[in-house]
Amino acid sequence: MDPKPEHKARMRELALEFARKHQARDLYSLGEAAGAKLVFMDLGERDGAYDPVHKAIVINNTRDLNRQKFTLAHEIAHALLLDDDDLLSDIHEDFEGDHLEQVIERLCDWGAANILIEPEVLKDVLDRHGISAQAVLDLSRKAQISLRSAMVSIAEQAQEPTLIVLFQPAAPQKPLVVNFTAQNAAFKYSLTLGQIIPKDHPVQVSFDTRLPLDENTFVPFTSGRKMPAHLTTYPEKHRVVGVFRTV
Predict the structure, then answer these.
(1) Angle at the Cα of 241 (from 16 to 176), degrees rounded to 5?
(2) Range of the domain at 233
(3) Which of 125, 120, 158 is nearest to 140 (CA)?
């Protein structure tokens, strides 16, 4: 479930205003700018949390630095949302239950991307690589952000239905599974987190050969449905990014 365009536009305004006022992008500067106490601890599977009562942001210290930075920006977006009564009210009027939670999380991912990524860097990456897996990796490196943040940002720039997926094995020598997804509003479906990818799918081939791919294939839904799509991949270390654009 995606936020409405007007919700995303307002969150982008809030995030960009925050970024303009506070241009430092390191963890402690961001935390100080948000007026929040930073707490680092092992949160297990959770990346982080925001405690509005005590103005504290808790970060999982077992994650890598870029992941921690994205989590911090995501929690700052939660704080910005809670401080905007009109936006918060509109979201609660339009959504409820699980859909409400999904919309808030996606909205805060979008806010995090806008806090962390300078518009000039994003434009340069898109001019070089277009909407592709290479663009995701390049943006992550140049902006010094997590792959997740880069995926969200690139997906939102796409004009056609686009789904970006981070795949990695659940354990060494195990098949690839879906680890994280980002998509634009035009792409109406998604893959299930933890879903196993067929061994003969090009994404698995790219991971096994360590070679990027650029070809027509399909989105492998859990139901068995195969949606035709153009795919670019870029393998890196123990994972591979795939960008599906419907054809």
Answers:
(1) 135
(2) 119-246
(3) 125
